[in-house]
Amino acid sequence: MAVYTDVDPDDLAALVARYDIGTLLSCKGIAEGVENSNFLLETTGGRFILTLYEKRVSEGDLPFFVDLLAHLSEKHCPVPAMIRDRGGDAIQRISGRAACIIQFLSGISLTHPSPAQCASAGAALGAMHRAVADFGGTRANSMGREHWREVASATGNLDVVIPGLQAVVDAELDLLDREWPSDLPKHVIHADLFPDNVLMLGDRVTGLIDFYFAATDFRAYDVAVTHASWTFSDDGRNCNLARAGALMRGYAEEICLTDMEVAALPLLARGAALRFLLTRAHDWVHTPADALVTRKDPAPFLARLRRYQAEDAAELFVGI
Ligand SMILES: Nc1ncnc2c1ncn2[C@@H]1O[C@H](COP(=O)(O)OP(=O)(O)OP(=O)(O)O)[C@@H](O)[C@H]1O
Ligand SMILES: N[C@@H](CCO)C(=O)O
């Protein structure tokens, strides 16, 4: 359960009183997620999400996220609004953390999406990419390739997490330094569009959430992150070609990737697998013992990395 920081009931009631969202009825910690502390608020005005920003979100970036969500909402992407208080402020402080009250969206996050649901997720990602085309904000990718060595070093000896992991990561970091592309189309991307960050009802996407890694980077890297998180078996060993093909087809309904982007997808997916392998390994070692959080297993992302390293990896990105 991702609650790193508790909220005092009186402070919370005072925070809610700044808004036109009714009076507080209840507040419950939310089980999912690993990055931030999230609570479901019920007020006489309805349901809301309260997010307290933790380790990987800097307060200075919050105005960028507020603007990005407002832009995407104007373009009819199904993203939650960060609600403003009566004074017009969306960014607050509580329990020593920056915090926002966010619109609650209906829908369910899937654990085992069908091909049709993968196609919808791919199309929603593509529609989001079209919608950001005229967004003026930029943000350097704090979890982008240039930062993966820091995450690896901050973890300590990776062999403690998985025997033999240090050598695999060192070799992969060297290869990605040499071969990472420099001139693919770039704009603001989500960068973490896992199934738990997409809300769905049936095959319909009702919400894209958790934009706190959104940053300016290759749009094809966003496709690679989404591919890595939507199309594999739980242990990361097998890519489901029906899901993968549907995801790529859904995306292609909105965006036609260039030949250079398509050719780069296996390498970008190696990067995506490494990014989540590293952050999960880091958190495996460094999550505070008293935090109410279920750590995520790094091993399935090592398995994905191995699959993307295979010579036939390009076949995993063919739309059907
Ligand atoms: N706007 C929303 N509407 C409905 N539910 C939401 C909303 N925002 C968050 N949630 C719920 O809270 C959970 C955790 O939110 P979120 O994914 O933002 O947390 P996180 O700690 O940043 O997670 P992650 O580990 O994916 O980075 C989601 O899986 C979802 O169940
Ligand atoms: N979506 C990520 C957490 C955000 O870094 C994961 O599942 O590892």
| First and last CA, distance | 37 Å
CATH A-level architecture of the largest domain = Alpha-Beta Complex
CATH superfamily of the largest domain: Aminoglycoside phosphotransferase (APH), C-terminal lobe
- The name CATH uses for the topology of the largest domain is Aminoglycoside 3'-phosphotransferase, Chain: A, domain 2
Helix-strand category: alpha+beta
Number of helices: 9
| Ligand roster | adenosine-5'-triphosphate, L-homoserine
Rg computed from alpha carbons, rounded to a whole number of angstroms: 19 Å
CATH C-level class of the largest domain is Alpha Beta
Question: How many separate domains?
Answer: 2
Helix content: 25-40%
Low-pLDDT stretches are none
- Number of distinct beta strands: 9
Q: Give the overall pLDDT as a whole number.
A: 95
Strands across the major sheet, in which order? 1-2-3-5-4
Structural description of this entry:
The protein is built from nine helices and nine strands. The chain is an alpha+beta fold. It has two domains: 9-103, 2-Layer Sandwich (Phosphorylase Kinase, domain 1), CATH 3.30.200.20; 115-317, Aminoglycoside phosphotransferase (APH), C-terminal lobe (Aminoglycoside 3'-phosphotransferase, Chain: A, domain 2). The protein has a five-stranded antiparallel sheet, with helices on one face. A hairpin with a 2-residue loop joins strand 7 and strand 8 (204-208). Helix 3 (115-131) runs parallel beside helix 7, helix 5 packs antiparallel against helix 8 (259-286) and helix 6 (219-230) packs across helix 8. It is globular. It binds adenosine-5'-triphosphate (ATP) and L-homoserine (HSE). L-homoserine binds at residues 34-35, 192, 194, 276, 279-280, 296.
